């Protein structure tokens, strides 16, 4: 009888089946509770009457408007997914909102790079980065199950509540990382893939253990946050130059006010769970760093036009945005209470996308004249050479060798 | 029995009074109301008490333990479980017990030392403890427990990895068994 139940429980997409399984579950659980010491043979007497039960509820469901509310008891089956929400569970595992912020910075890095915009490469770059970031977050959650259960912010994560098994979480991470890195290597270029792999290693194997060893983890974590725009930039141009470093530098500096403000209110939790954060061990340094790096963002935004990343209007437009950010950081430093830290954290979440948009709006060159010149030169040559300019762009990305036709 | 039956019959008669003397309009309204208002039915998933390991088919996870903040597991016992599955189950039970022991002791130490700190501070005259003053305690607690935390970290990573590899082996074994059963 239980085998039939097991088959029912394995079908996750049909809610009616789930309902009947849940009802049978409840009934069998009552049997289990009452006859804990006896064998399962006693349960065989009951299913004959039970068969009518679920089907009658099913019939009723079809005829009437029955509102089913699922009540969860304290003891839940361990790998448990409610009503086919498998995708949302994996979204929570991969910290979807954080991953999308990372993807936005990569898109910004790609769009800011001084090279032609190729839609397929752009799509592969963003998708690859998203997958790699999801894998990194899943591995992080797998490592930190007992620590997450100590802190109120993280105690409802899917691995802590047992909704996903650790094996499935790591399996998801491996598949996601492999596919992400393959997308980056074959769809974009080797430099982006190397940066992605390096970032994954840095986050899972250096930052995660270091969170419990020394406060230098914040600096390493900021590097982790600064690499995605570099990946986007490298995906577009294939090299990293001064402009890329400015974009990465702004993102590196942004991590400090963001994280210090976040960790300020969680000091008791961090201390009890054993995390070594600036907010706990050195609160003065925490506040000073937030202010210092807010000023660094201001400074870097002024320098951006000089490196030909943006035009000079950019420095003017970002001035109010960065000035307000610095003001909030100053308030955090002087008042250093929960209100000012929360305001700084919330504004940092708006500040970053706004800064990315301003970068895009003030990009120095939108059109690149190099391609046009090439076309003028090649039109004098044979018909074949002109044809090869367009398809070779995408072929080069797939084939490991450089596609050249004809002699120039 | 007879005493309760008579009032019940009477009440039932009164209940259906409207049906006997009512018009068709009220009847239609009543049924329409019953159809419009969706009937609420609650389905319960899970159990309220920790189950016995032999009587359940899957693992169960319970509410967080108040002292260690970890959630206890009940690992189900299958009569025809393989050697690997048996090893995995025993390893999981052992690691969960070790984890719960560590965190219970650790959290108790934390709360005791925090209470001591607050008491000492109040004795020296100041009534309210600001967050910055509490930070002194948090830093000293972290510094005192640094070595314990490092040891726990390394042990936890190794045990977690062991559980992962064993779980992978059990999954592969189950997959092979399923393929073998079909062919």
Automatic annotation (TrEMBL), chain A:
Pfam families for the chain: UbiA
Superkingdom, taxonomy of origin: Eukaryota
InterPro entries, sorted: Protohaem_IX_farnesylTrfase, Protohaem_IX_farnesylTrfase_mt, UbiA_prenyltransferase, UbiA_prenylTrfase_CS, UbiA_sf
Family annotation (CDD domains): PT_UbiA_Cox10
Gene3D superfamilies: UbiA prenyltransferase
Subcellular location: Mitochondrion membrane
Membrane spanning residue stretches: 96-113, 183-203, 215-234, 246-264, 285-306, 344-361
GO cellular component terms listed in the entry, alphabetical order: mitochondrial membrane
Keyword vocabulary terms for this entry: Heme biosynthesis, Membrane, Mitochondrion, Transferase, Transit peptide, Transmembrane, Transmembrane helix
Recorded topology in the membrane: Multi-pass membrane protein
GO terms, biological process: heme A biosynthetic process
Chain's role: Converts protoheme IX and farnesyl diphosphate to heme O.
Listed name of the protein: Protoheme IX farnesyltransferase, mitochondrial
Taxonomic lineage: Eukaryota, Metazoa, Ecdysozoa, Arthropoda, Hexapoda
Gene: Dvir\GJ17536
Automatic annotation (TrEMBL), chain B:
Keyword Ubl conjugation: no
A cellular component term, taken from the record's GO annotations: mitochondrial inner membrane
Subcellular location: Mitochondrion inner membrane
GO BP, sorted A to Z: intrinsic apoptotic signaling pathway
Major localization listed first in the record, in broad terms: mitochondrion
Keyword tags: Membrane, Mitochondrion, Mitochondrion inner membrane, Transit peptide
Membrane topology of this protein: Peripheral membrane protein
Family: Belongs to the COA8 family.
Protein name: APOPT family protein CG14806, mitochondrial
GN (gene name): Dvir\GJ19030
């Amino acid at each position: 009888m239980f085998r039939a139940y097991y088959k029912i429980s394995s079908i996750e997409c049909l809610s009616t089946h789930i309902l009947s399984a849940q009802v049978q579950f409840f009934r069998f659980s009552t049997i289990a509770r009452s006859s804990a010491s006896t064998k399962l043979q006693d349960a065989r007497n009951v299913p004959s009457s039970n068969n009518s039960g679920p089907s009658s509820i099913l019939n009723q469901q079809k005829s009437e408007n029955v509102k089913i509310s699922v009540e969860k008891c304290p003891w839940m089956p361990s790998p448990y997914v409610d009503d086919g929400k498998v995708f949302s569970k994996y979204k929570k595992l991969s910290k979807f909102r954080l991953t999308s912020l990372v993807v936005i910075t990569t898109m910004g890095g790609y769009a800011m790079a001084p090279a032609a915009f190729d839609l397929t490469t752009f799509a592969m770059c963003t998708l690859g980065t998203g997958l790699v970031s999801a894998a990194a977050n899943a591995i992080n959650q797998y490592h930190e199950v007992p620590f997450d259960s100590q802190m109120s912010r993280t105690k409802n994560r899917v691995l802590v509540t047992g909704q996903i098994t650790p094996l499935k979480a790591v399996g998801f991470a491996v598949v996601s990382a492999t596919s992400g890195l393959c997308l980056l290597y074959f769809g974009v270029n080797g430099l982006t893939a190397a940066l992605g792999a390096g970032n994954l290693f840095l986050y899972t194997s250096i930052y995660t253990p270091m969170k419990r060893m020394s406060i230098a983890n914040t600096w390493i974590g900021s590097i982790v946050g600064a690499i995605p725009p570099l990946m986007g930039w490298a995906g577009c141009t294939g090299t990293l130059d001064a402009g890329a470093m400015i974009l990465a530098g702004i993102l590196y500096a942004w991590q400090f006010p963001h994280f210090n403000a976040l960790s300020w209110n969680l000091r008791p939790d961090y201390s009890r769970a054993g995390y070594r954060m600036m907010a706990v061990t050195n609160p003065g340094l925490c506040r000073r760093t937030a202010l210092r790096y807010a000023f660094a963002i201001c400074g870097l935004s002024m320098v951006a036009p000089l490196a030909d990343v943006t035009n000079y209007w950019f420095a003017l437009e970002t001035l109010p945005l960065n000035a307000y950010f610095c003001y909030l950081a100053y308030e955090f430093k002087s008042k250093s209470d929960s209100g000012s830290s929360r305001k700084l954290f919330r504004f940092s979440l708006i500040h970053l996308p706004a800064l990315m948009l301003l970068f895009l709006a003030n990009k120095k060159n939108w059109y690149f004249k190099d391609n046009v010149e090439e076309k003028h030169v090649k039109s004098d040559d044979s018909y074949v050479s002109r044809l090869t300019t367009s398809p070779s762009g995408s072929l080069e990305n797939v084939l490991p060798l450089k596609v050249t036709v004809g002699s120039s | 029995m007879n005493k309760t039956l008579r009032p019940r019959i009477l009440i039932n008669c009164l209940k259906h009074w409207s049906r006997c003397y009512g018009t068709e309009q009220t009847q239609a309204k009543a049924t329409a109301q019953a159809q419009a208002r969706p009937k609420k039915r609650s389905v319960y998933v899970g159990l309220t008490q920790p189950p016995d390991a032999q009587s359940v088919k899957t693992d169960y996870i319970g509410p967080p333990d108040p002292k260690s903040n970890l959630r206890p597991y009940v690992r189900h016992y299958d009569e025809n479980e393989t050697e690997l599955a048996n090893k995995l189950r025993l390893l999981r039970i052992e690691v969960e017990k070790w984890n719960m022991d560590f965190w219970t002791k650790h959290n108790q130490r934390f709360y005791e030392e925090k209470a001591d700190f607050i008491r000492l501070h109040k004795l020296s005259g100041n009534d309210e403890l600001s967050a910055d003053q509490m930070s002194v305690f948090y830093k000293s607690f972290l510094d005192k427990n640094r070595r314990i935390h490092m040891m726990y970290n390394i042990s936890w990573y190794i045990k977690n990895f062991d559980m992962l590899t064993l779980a992978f082996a059990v999954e592969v074994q189950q997959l092979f068994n399923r393929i073998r059963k079909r062919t």
